[in-house]
Amino acid sequence: MSNGVETSVQMKTGFKLEKLVRETVKGLRPYSSARDEYVSDGSKMIFLDANENPFENGLNRYPDPQQRSLKTLLAEQREVLEKNILLGNGSDEVLDLIFRAFCEPIQDNIITLPPTYGMYKVLSGINAIENREILLTSDFEPDVSQILKRVDENSKVIFICSPNNPTGNAFQKKHIEELLNNFHGLVVVDEAYIDFSESESWIFSLPKYPNLIVIQTLSKAYGMAGIRLGMCYASAEIIEVLNKIKPPYNVNQLTQYQALKRVLDDTMVQEEVQQIVRERKTLVNALNELNFVYKVYPSDSNFVLVKVDDADKRYQELLEAQIVVRNRSNQPLCENTLRFTIGTPEENKILIAILKELE
Ligand SMILES: *Cc1c(COP(=O)(O)O)cnc(C)c1O
Fold this sequence. Notes:
Layout: H1 17-20, H2 23-26, H3 34-37, H4 68-78, E1 85-88, H5 90-102, E2 109-112, H6 119-126, E3 130-133, H7 144-150, E4 155-161, H8 173-182, E5 186-190, E6 212-217, E7 230-233, H9 236-245, H10 253-264, H11 266-288, E8 293-296, E9 303-308, H12 311-320, E10 326-327, E11 337-341, H13 345-357
Parallel strand pairs: 2-3, 2-4, 4-5, 5-6
Antiparallel strand pairs: 1-7, 6-7, 8-9, 9-11, 10-11
The structure holds pyridoxal-5'-phosphate.
Pyridoxal-5'-phosphate (PLP) binds at residues 90-92, 117, 161, 165, 190, 192, 217, 219-220, 225, 230.
């Protein structure tokens, strides 16, 4: 067992969590539900505290608001403590909690690095937070000096998606380190695709950086997009703030149960991931042979971004062949690009055969 993430003693001058938390959030006490006050220890207690229907059907009780069983398992696997974990209804909920805990509407701003995951911008709009967009460089890396130039005292969060969607690459470690060391707000590293990458998770750097938040999900490598489970890893202080504003029963019982089963079946997950990575290589090789493909961008994810001669035309042609890909051409730096998610070996075979016919 590890010692978990105890960053408070190592906090650098320049980073003070209290300075980032919204005034209204500081004063809040988390809603205390019946299931918070008394948790079943498996004995035959009589529960008359939550106005539930007493007749057992497997789902008549409220779920554990702190998802203890699931957190215990994740803590063990990720070598952190349970108090370093917050779980949400998908990572989208976790991202929204970060906005609502730290970003004051109208006043504060966040930094995003397009082309990237669209949800950061959507959430900035919903929460009335200015979104300062600083384009990635032409090789799809964060433009660190530009970012540090554009931040001010109202910049609360930098959202870094690594491996990045839609470009597919994991950012160089030194670029993220520079931001962690020089930005005094929070640095969120969204690792939705980390299992497909050779690079190490930033979870292991949590003890070093009090301003780091790492987000993962069961939606991609774990094959559980349907249950909606997102994970947030950070210092106990940050998790405590997010817990204050989390809806009490944000992760339902069915999700907790399925997540536990799937996370326990790590061997199966790793086998599927390896198969997807193998298929990615096959697809990349095939794409590189096609004369209408101008560039296949390197991928650390379960998708590849591809520059083609005419993205709209190729998208339509694939659609007519019953294959749906994503046209990313309207994203900056992504003119005439399509994003291909890696399918099963059978799907991949069909895709490659059809692509060859389009030549
Ligand atoms: C798919 C994806 C997610 C997953 O979001 P969930 O709400 O957990 O399904 C998060 N971040 C990025 C960058 C993604 O591409």
